[in-house]
Small ribosomal subunit protein bS6c
Amino acid sequence: MKYEMMVVLTEEYNNTELKIWAFNFGKILKKLNASDISVISRGKRDLNYLIKNRNRGNFIQVNFVILPDYIKQLSKDLNLDSNVLRFLIFNIDR
């Protein structure tokens, strides 16, 4: 199934660090047999409310195709990353 995910990372990342995070996240997706992976940086933005005592974040959009069974593991991996403030995964197949 096809998914789109928005990830909010801490604002401390510079462009190089964002590319490294995206590359490492792509490797995680590959381990879960994902395909058609694309990562788009949406830039730093102010948050409308504090998330983990932060008022700014780096927004990253990730599109990929993966079996639904792996979404739970993907969510678990993102929850373990201390630099991820929030994420949301959408099924865009429907």
Observations:
- The radius of gyration is 13 Å.
- The domain at 2-91 is CATH 3.30.70.60 (Alpha-Beta Plaits).
